TrEMBL record:
GO terms for molecular function: glucan endo-1,3-beta-D-glucosidase activity. It is a lipid-anchor; GPI-anchor. Keywords: Cell membrane, Disulfide bond, Glycoprotein, Glycosidase, GPI-anchor, Hydrolase, Lipoprotein, Membrane, Plant defense, Signal. Its EC number is 3.2.1.39. This is glucan endo-1,3-beta-D-glucosidase. Its main location: membrane. It comes from the Eukaryota. GO terms for cellular component: plasma membrane; side of membrane. It comes from Punica granatum (Pomegranate).
């Protein structure tokens, strides 16, 4: 084929890609493990403003669902792992479906398309805690959907970590993919059941974790820009770990007789802080390599074409568990306050533009808490920093993070400020026995941001309510005397 011809073909495929993406679209994960949450209606407006037409949730929170109603946004609702045991009762599963699915199934309601049964329940680090409860929960939920006559359009699926499959060391290529041996019969049952119900297999794929967990992992293989030594597999050259991992999944499904099952990528993304490889530059590089491929429906060598993908995640979540690593609180394509972190063109057209930020976000006043420059006795400083950090997010101070180069005073100020903001700038929370003081000067240093928290949508006791309650108490106490 001549050069011109290829050019036309690419243009044709490109046009095809655009129109298909328009219909199918890109999804995002909306997690809510934040101390100060944006209002659900603010987040939904962000989705609309950025043309995001699909969202994956980790629960079925009523206020979230209320904000999504009438928008036409496609929703995957979720059942958390700690609810799976309860769903082993068919009556409970039916109640769940009634309260969290069919209730919203009306004109102007919520466009629910999937129910995520558990979240990575077979993760090796859970030590098998959810092995016995996940499949019965999946069966009950799908059967309840079927009984409620919505099973044709709403499918239950189990979002799995990519650690449910692997390629053996003797033949480490995607075409050799199989399910993990400790769960292979369970995965066979699950995949058979999904197939019977025409439901998709959902897997979370994290090139970042490949790099994080293996110091000798080739850096370029985590991204989409080439430059890595290709992995050859039966005449196919794998240039990046995303394709290789996805195709290992295809092979694992094939090994249990369902090589044609639809695969959804439930989570994929790159964090921006909390590790030496988690930064804005790498996240930019990753997403701006991924987006054009998705838009062009490039697919993978074994599955060319459209892939349904949910980015992880929408917003930073400052109270997520950091057991897997300090980066856990920094997965957002937006910051905690709905501000975009880096240029990202979700349409995949490669335009160097920022996402549309959240609108009408209310911040606390421009006040920071810092180490008191006049403090004399610093002997308690270490303890006070530990205390502040135990009740707020200091992950940006850690090795490889954006604030790791602060000096000892900077560290103290950072910790004090994070605590002060977490406490909604309560003046009593910026004292630390005289070690701390409030400043109206922005004390951010270089690329290390000392944030101002937003006014929280989640209820907290405001000082005025506290005052009123105290007054009533004092009054009643005086009457008693
Ligand atoms: C519906 O979902 C919500 C939020 O995840 C949960 O708290 C509630 O228990 C669910 N309802 C039922 C009947 O299980
Ligand atoms: C799994 O087992 C390890 C080692 O025994 C333990 O440290 C960890 O806390 C366990 N995790 C869970 C979720 O039970
Ligand atoms: C799961 O069930 C098997 C067989 O009934 C049992 O041996 C095992 O202890 C159970 N595992 C858990 C984590 O409950
Ligand atoms: C600041 O805190 C971080 C994280 O605790 C630590 O790694 C670093 O050494 C501290 N810097 C100084 C100068 O104490
Ligand atoms: C404080 O300064 C930093 C960088 O110097 C800036 O990014 C941030 O927006 C400022 N914060 C406020 C509230 O002005």
């Amino acid at each position: 084929m001549g050069k011109v011809c290829i050019h036309w073909l690419i243009m044709f495929l490109g046009l095809l890609g655009c129109s298909v993406l328009g219909e199918e679209g890109l999804g995002v994960n909306w997690g809510t493990m934040a101390s100060h949450k944006l209002l659900p209606k603010t987040v939904v407006q962000m989705l609309i403003d950025n043309g995001i037409k699909k969202v994956k949730l980790f629960d079925a929170d009523q206020s979230t669902m209320g904000a999504l109603a009438g928008t036409g946004i496609e929703v995957m609702v979720g059942i958390p792992n700690d609810q799976l045991l309860a769903m082993n009762s068919y009556e409970r599963a039916k109640n769940w479906v009634r309260q969290n699915v069919t209730r919203y199934n009306f004109n102007g309601g919520v466009h629910i398309k999937y129910v995520a049964v558990g979240n990575e329940p077979f993760l090796s680090s859970y030590n098998g805690s959810f092995l016995n409860v996940t499949f019965p929960a999946l069966e009950n939920i799908q059967n309840a959907l079927n009984e409620a006559r919505v099973g044709d359009s709403i499918k239950a699926t189990v979002p799995s970590n990519a650690d449910v499959y692997y390629s053996p060391e003797s033949n480490p290529v995607p075409s050799a993919g199989i399910f993990r041996s400790d769960i292979s019969s369970l995965m066979t049952q699950i995949v058979d059941f999904l197939a019977k119900n025409k439901a998709p297999f959902t897997v979370n794929i994290y090139p970042f974790l490949s790099l994080y967990l293996n110091p000798s992992f080739p850096q370029n293989y985590a991204f989409f820009d080439g430059g890595a030594t290709p992995v050859a597999d039966n005449g196919v050259q794998y240039m990046n770990v995303f394709d290789a991992n996805f195709d290992t999944c295809v092979s694992a499904l094939n090994s249990v007789g369902h090589g044609d099952m639809t695969i959804i990528v439930g989570e994929v993304g790159w964090p921006t802080d909390g590790d030496k490889n988690a930064n804005i530059a790498n996240a930019y590089k990753f997403y701006n390599g991924l987006m054009p491929r998705l838009a062009a429906n490039t697919g993978t060598p074994r599955r060319p074409g459209y892939i349904e993908v949910y980015l992880f995640g929408l917003l930073d979540e400052d109270i997520k568990s950091i057991a897997p690593g300090n980066f856990e609180r920094h997965w957002g394509i937006f910051r905690y306050d709905g501000q975009p972190k880096f240029a990202l063109d979700l349409s995949g057209q490669g335009q160097n533009k920022l996402l549309v930020p959240a609108k009408n976000v209310e911040y606390l006043p421009n006040q920071w808490c810092m180490l008191n420059p006049n403090a004399q006795d610093l002997s308690m400083l270490g303890d006070k920093i530990s205390y502040a950090c135990s009740l707020s997010d200091c992950t940006a101070l850690m090795y490889g993070s954006s604030c790791n180069n602060l000096d000892a005073n900077g560290n103290a100020s950072y910790a004090f400020n994070m605590y002060f903001q977490a406490q909604n700038q309560n003046p009593l929370s910026c004292n630390f026995q005289g070690l701390a003081t409030v400043s109206t000067q922005n004390i951010s240093q270089g690329s290390c941001l000392f944030p101002i928290q937003i006014k929280s949508a989640s209820p907290f006791r405001s000082p005025s309510v506290g005052f009123a309650v105290t007054t009533v108490f004092v009054f009643v106490f005086m009457l008693l005397l």
